[in-house]
Every structure is written in structure tokens, then in C-alpha cells.
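Hi team,

Below is the intake form for Cupin domain-containing protein from Lonsdalea quercina. Please confirm the fields before the structure is written into the shared record.

FORM ID: S-0412
PROTEIN: Cupin domain-containing protein
ORGANISM: Lonsdalea quercina
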Amino acid sequence: MSTKEIFPYAGSSFVNTFSPQLVMKNTYSEASDKVTAELSAGDRAGTVMNIPFQWESLPVDDSLIDGQEDDKSTGIHRDNVVKKKLTCVLHDGGWQLLHNEGGNMLRHWIYNRRLLFPLLLVAGLSQAQASDIRNTIPYWSVWVDKAGISHQAKCQLDTLKLEQFSAKGDPEWVSQEDLLTSRYVFNIMPVGWVGPWHKNPSPQWIIPLSGRWFVQTMDGKRVEMGPGEISFGYDKNAGTFGNKVGHMSGAVGKEPAKVMVVQVTSALENPKDERCPAGGVGQQVSERRSTP
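The structure came back. Fields below:
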């Protein structure tokens, strides 16, 4: 018999944070991929959301917690009986709620395969969004098709995992397929500056810090980006068609475009989406061939 404590917490998408810490007492066993819990009445339903958590071991304590009654018939130590239902799925370090009939308060022990989970949800729970949106990083990708023509696709880095990164405490979403960096440099594109057709000198991330800039690929697609809109350039296999090769780029607007460039040794050898050589998948299907 061991006693465990769950420290639930919420990301910035929640109105409030989880509190206080609740204690459970049960023999540890492997968790099922599904659990159900009772939830108090609320006015929102069907929202998919993420509830991450972490474990810490505590000393064994055979006494009941806070004088609450133990339901020996079900093995559930009850704190507050409520009437609505909540369905969860465990995935990649977090609980994904598949059905939410309420959104105000949950304070109930969850029982599944001899494993008890205390969980506290507070007001604003139903405002969280699906994990495939909140736990990914979008970027524009310059890629080249088999004909040697460059394109741009909007990709999503989707392999982030919930873990502690630089300090103990609440985990954060951390990328897993990081490319080996070789150099970083800061560039300032003067107002009106335009770089002629060229290839990226190496696979590289371009992160705008201020101002705006554009990238135009051989298929005619032009994308303008500002602070927070990152791009990955990988067009070394681009062919030459007339005066076009790779891409052209330049500053946009009435102020210089200040960018940080992070060069990497190589792109992924076998990306799951050819349009996204830095990882992840493309949001939209783009033309595989076009006339430059």
C-alpha cells in the first residue's frame, strides 16, 4: 500500500488554476486509457481539453483524509458527490476529456483498475482547447518538390511532450525532434531591401523580431511574416528555371525587418510530411508541381 498525491494544474488557457492538493490512498496499478468521473452541473458541453498532471509519493497513512467517509463497496473515497459525467483519455502525459457535460466544479475521486485519481477542476475549465492546437508550434516551411520547384506550406510541430525543462515545478510542453544547430546570426533588412533569387545557405530557422519580411517561392507563392511568425528554409535541391532558383525575400513596410537566423546541420532525413522537413505536418495540401 502506498499513498500518492496528485498536483493538478492548468495552462494559461484556463481562467483559474488548480488548487488545493488532494491526497489519495490506494495500491498503485497501471492506469487504464479511459476513466469517468462525476461533474457538477454546468452550461457547456462537448469541449475537448487537456488536463496534465504529475505524481509524488507520500508516506503511508491508514487514516481517512479530513474525516471524509470511505465508500468501501466501490473503493472510492468520496469528497463531494455530484451528478454530471466527464469522460477522459490518458495520452502523452495528460488527460484528454472526451465529454464534458458541465464546467463549474469537479471534486471527486476517480476509480479505475484499482487506481484512484483525485482531480480538482475550477471555473473556466470548459474554455480550454484541444491539444492539437495548444500544444503545437506553427511555422512556414520552404520545401522543394521532386521537379525541383520550391513551395511554401504552413506546418505544425506536433511532437512536443509535457515535461520539466529548466526548473522543477509545473511541466511545460517541450520539443522532441530538435535539429542540431551550427550557427545563429542576427540580420537587419533595410527598408526596401530585396534579396534576389537564391537558395538558403543551409537549412535554417528565420525568426522575425520586429518589422515584417516576405518570402516568395518558385511556384509564385508569397508569404509575409512578422514577429512570432517563424519560417524554415530548406531549398538546397531547387532547380534553376530561367532566372528563378530557390526563393527571393525582402523587407516589407516602412521599418527595417530585424530577424534572428538559426542555422542547422541538416533537416530531418525522413519527415512524415515532405512539406515539413523540420518536423510536423502541413495544415493544407499544396500543389506538388507548378510551372516556375
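SUMMARY LINE: The longest helix spans residues 131-134.

Thanks, M.
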